[in-house]
Design brief:
The complex is a heterodimer. Chain A is built from 17 helices and nine strands. By secondary structure, chain A is an alpha/beta fold. Chain A has a five-stranded mixed sheet, sandwiched between helices. In chain A, strand 5 and strand 6 form a beta hairpin. Chain A is globular, with a radius of gyration of 22 Å. In chain B, 38% of the residues lie in helices and 11% in strands. The longest helix of chain B is centred in the middle third of the chain and has 12 residues. Chain B is elongated. In chain B, 42% of the residues are buried. Classes of the chains: A alpha/beta, B alpha+beta.
Chain lengths: 428, 160
């Protein structure tokens, strides 16, 4: 099986130096791009590859780029932002790419920037990824020294600068318009769309925000072609994907597998199934804002469209497993507590609604729930649905709640009837 | 360019100035500048906010509105070491709540509190991206995964 994204990442994650990266074929794709391809040809290849954004939303990358105005229409400055603010609970995939092969992400940024004719890129990196920060900083220095970044890159007419911006925290900053506000030195509240960032982003200029994993795919698509990329996948969405599993499984971890790999294969084969004495009860297929799925859904393929068909979303592709000894109400309480805290407070439904849901779940889990609480929770799910809020934070928070109210209605009832949580919090 | 009189230290000014070329407008420096001056004592006092406001030529309110938004900018005194304990889903599934309870007991503080000797401040934090090594925490810039109740004291003792 081909594993383009991770094949040059060492077991201990010690990254390749610029020269080591080159001996594996690194920056060959950039050189080819600059010498042989027009920006339009790069865009066309990425469009044909059927690459979808790996940050969670799965928006087709080629389509996103097509909304970016031609340089003849809107000149410089034009920006590219690498979203390295990985903070979705359960998600630890970009960390591997950032720590393990920083030159790959730099090459991805450069080729993308060339395609878009952007002149400046920012890597928006969460503070907690300290090792990634040191490694990217060093890789950028090496790349500048070898004229891979800067003016007239590798003798071409293409100029590009890349800067790291280290975040000061808040989950909200991963949302693309909130991220732009953070980069501008403001509070990270989301912006209304339209205008979309492609047209009016950073400081009102054309801006594209892409996830780290998305960008890492670009050099490989250019080098090996769109057809090769499409053929990697088992479904009509091209490429490989970093899949992870966490929770009480035997071997939590991260694997680069073909897009469309069965959920069951990832959980049972790669993660080794449940730990001794535990049974699988439900999974969240791609981080904490994806709806819960049950055992019968394990036969679904991990892809953006296939996961929607199964009743959830692929999200970030990092699976969270809920076992039969852990309280699902407790799980939801933990989750909504997080979202309520992280709400930026900009729009009312999210700010007030999540706090309300949080208080109700706390009281149910702690034996003070009332029968009418379930109705309030169901109402809130409607009020916080997509379209009622500025950004996807609240809708992302209630998707799992909705699924839990559906699949674990009995658990909620027992909590309320017995005025206690029936689960033992027995971890060790 | 940057203006105003200030109590900022020379090395802080140099570090802030060195980032100036990255952004077309100086407002974008606010977060970097806050993080730079925070290195002094781990948190940012009202006086420092005022100094930054003068230096960057923004109002105190503008600077503070940014400072108070971000959870890694501290506007209250903190201990010498910050413990950031992941309170998100995957760590919770593996007992992070029990780890937190034990940390509170060992340190004699609640979330947000600082030990009486000023050594540690305990703060719950969103997912640290160590879900395969949960439960996890950071102390300052060091990460610790696969935490067990009985190895917490050893970890804490390695910080002086």
């Amino acid at each position: 099986m081909e594993r383009p994204l991770t094949q040059n990442i060492r077991q201990d994650r010690v990254p390749l130096s610029v020269n080591e990266y080159k001996t594996t074929g690194g920056y060959k794709s950039l050189l080819m791009t600059l010498r042989e391809m027009t920006p339009g040809e790069v865009k066309e290849e990425v469009n044909k590859s059927t690459l979808k954004g790996r940050g969670g939303a799965g928006f087709p990358t080629g389509l996103k780029w097509s909304f970016f105005p031609e340089i003849e229409k809107i000149g410089k400055p034009r920006y590219l932002v690498a979203n390295a603010d990985e903070m979705e609970p359960g998600t630890f995939k970009d960390r591997l790419l950032l720590e393990g092969n920083p030159h790959q992400i730099i090459e991805g940024i450069l080729i993308t920037a060339y395609a878009l004719q952007a002149d400046v890129s920012y890597i928006y990196l969460r503070w907690e990824y300290r090792q990634a920060y040191e490694r990217i900083k060093l890789a950028l220095k090496e790349a500048y020294e070898q004229n891979l970044i800067g003016s007239n890159i590798l003798g071409s007419k293409f100029d590009h600068n890349i800067f790291i911006h280290v975040s000061a925290g808040r989950y909200m900053c991963g949302e693309e318009t909130a991220l732009l506000n953070a980069l501008e030195g403001k509070r990270a509240s989301p912006r209304a769309k339209p205008p979309f960032p492609q047209v009016s982003g950073l400081w009102g200029r054309p801006t594209i925000v892409q996830n780290v994993e998305t960008l890492c795919n670009v050099p490989w698509i250019v080098l090996n072609g769109a057809e090769w990329f499409r053929n990697l996948s088992k479904i009509p969405e091209g490429g490989t994907k970093l899949f992870g599993v966490s929770g009480r499984v035997k071997i939590p971890g991260l694997w680069e597998l073909l897009m469309g790999t069965l959920l069951r294969e990832i959980v049972e084969q790669y993660a080794g199934g449940m730990r001794e004495g535990l049974k699988l009860r439900a999974v969240m297929p791609g981080g904490s804002s994806t709806s819960l799925l049950l055992k019968e859904h394990l036969s679904a393929q991990m892809g953006f469209d296939t996961m929607i068909q199964a009743g959830s979303r692929l999200g970030t592709g990092t699976v969270i497993v809920l076992d039969d000894k852990t309280c699902p109400v407790g799980l939801l309480e933990n989750l909504i507590h997080f979202y309520a805290r992280e709400s930026c407070g900009w729009c009312t439904p999210c700010r007030e609604g999540l706090a309300w849901i949080n208080a109700i779940l706390y009281s149910i889990e702690n034996g003070a729930g009332k029968t009418e609480d379930i109705e309030i929770l169901n109402d809130q799910c409607e009020l916080l649905a997509s379209g009622n809020t500025y950004c996807a934070l609240a809708p992302g928070a209630i998707d799992p709640l909705k699924s839990a109210l559906k699949y674990f209605a009995e658990d909620f009832e027992i909590h309320i009837m017995e005025k206690r949580c029936p689960y033992d919090r027995n971890i060790y | 360019m940057l203006i105003g009189k200030t109590s900022l230290r020379e090395y802080e000014i140099r570090e802030i100035e060195s980032l100036r070329e990255r952004y077309p407008v100086k407002q974008a420096l606010i977060i970097d500048a806050l993080m730079i001056v925070q290195k002094r004592s781990g948190w940012i006092s009202d006086e420092l906010i005022k100094s930054l406001a003068d230096f960057l030529d923004f109002s105190v309110e503008e600077i503070d509105s940014v400072a108070t938004f971000y959870n890694l900018i501290f506007r209250k005194p903190v201990g010498k070491h910050k413990i950031l304990i992941c309170s998100s889903l995957c760590c919770w599934l593996n007992g992070s709540d029990l780890i937190s309870e034990n940390l509170k007991k060992i340190l004699g503080i609640e979330f947000g509190g600082t030990t009486s000797d000023g050594q540690f401040t305990l703060i719950p934090i969103q997912c640290l991206g160590m879900c395969d090594k949960s439960p996890a925490m950071m102390i300052d810039e060091d990460s610790f995964g696969c935490l067990k109740v009985n190895n917490l004291t050893d970890i804490l003792e390695s910080f002086d």
